[in-house]
Design a protein that fits this description.
The chain has six helices and ten strands. By secondary structure, the chain is α/β, with parallel strands linked by helices. It has a seven-stranded parallel sheet, covered by helices on one side. A three-stranded antiparallel sheet has the order 4-8-7. Helix 6 (205-213) links the parallel strand 9 and strand 10. Helix 1 crosses helix 2. The protein is globular, with a radius of gyration of 17 Å. The protein starts with 5 loop residues before the first strand and ends in a 10-residue tail after the last strand. Bound molecules: 6-phosphogluconic acid. 6-phosphogluconic acid is lined by residues 43-47, 72-73, 85, 144-146, 150-152.
């Protein structure tokens, strides 16, 4: 990593969202001037909802025609299902902005999660115009943190965590009441130019502390260590309440 992680504490999720909108504007502006396009991967979950609403409110500031949006993960359900990340983000964000359909890259829901992951990997490779074995370099990836330390759909103890050869992986959860998932893999996340973790609520404080302060932590979110990019932890006062420095 070329730079230590940056840990920032905000009053609440609204302030975090305001910060991310500002950074998104800067990063996307730079990317569009430099290479003509901006690429971002978004998370599901509840935490980014206020951000998506703010992006809609300030939609006039962004070059949506030059923005390519992927998802960091998806549950293996149709987009119309309330558990679908794409469905949730479409309702709260995409349908309110003027973005060409071909700029949106949902995880395709195929016969099974393995096939979906393989197709998503192909979509990533062709969208980024990659040669065989190369890894996409996103301008920005937004991640959440689960109570068990998962991020994207990289859960503790699952095979997907060790995936080095593929850009996307199927996640078959041992608990059969949980939906299978598809996730982008650690090599893709760690190759991003900017990674923003967003976490809110005191119920995340212990997990956040472990991820930020325990250098030997094996929790999936602690394995996010960008090669060259910048890593930000953006937390509200609750999620950051157990950190030693604050
Ligand atoms: C998902 C996510 C997942 C999420 C965390 C945190 O599909 O649910 O991508 O990794 O970011 O579980 O979720 P909350 O924001 O709801 O706490």
């Amino acid at each position: 990593m070329n730079k230590e992680k940056e840990v920032l504490i905000f009053k609440d999720i609204e302030e975090i969202s305001g910060f991310v909108v500002k950074k998104w504007l800067e990063i996307s502006g730079r990317a569009v001037s430099k290479k003509g396009r901006f690429s971002v991967a978004l998370s599901g979950g509840r935490t980014p909802l206020p951000l998506y609403k703010r992006l809609v409110e300030s939609k006039g500031l962004f070059r949506w025609d030059k923005t390519d949006i992927f998802l960091v993960d998806e549950r293996f359900v149709p987009y119309s299902d309330p558990e679908s990340n794409f469905g949730m983000i479409r309702e709260n964000f995409f349908r309110h902005i003027n973005i060409p359909a071909e700029n949106l890259h949902p995880v395709p829901i195929e016969e099974d999660a393995e096939l979906s992951a393989a197709r998503y990997g192909k979509d990533l490779a062709s969208s980024f115009d990659l040669t065989a074995g190369a890894v996409p370099q996103f301008d920005l990836i937004l991640l959440g943190i689960g109570h068990d330390g998962h991020t994207a759909s990289l859960f503790p103890g699952t095979q997907a965590l060790n995936e080095k050869a593929h850009l996307a992986a199927a996640v078959i959860l041992p608990d059969i009441s949980k939906k299978n998932r598809v996730t982008i893999t650690l090599p893709v996340i760690n190759n991003s130019d900017n990674i923003f973790f967003m976490a809110a609520g005191a119920d995340k404080a212990e997990t956040v502390k472990e991820i930020i302060e325990n250098r030997d932590s094996l929790l999936p979110a602690a394995m996010v260590k960008p090669e060259k990019g910048r890593l930000f932890f953006l937390m509200d006062e609750g999620a950051g309440s157990l950190l030693s420095k604050f």
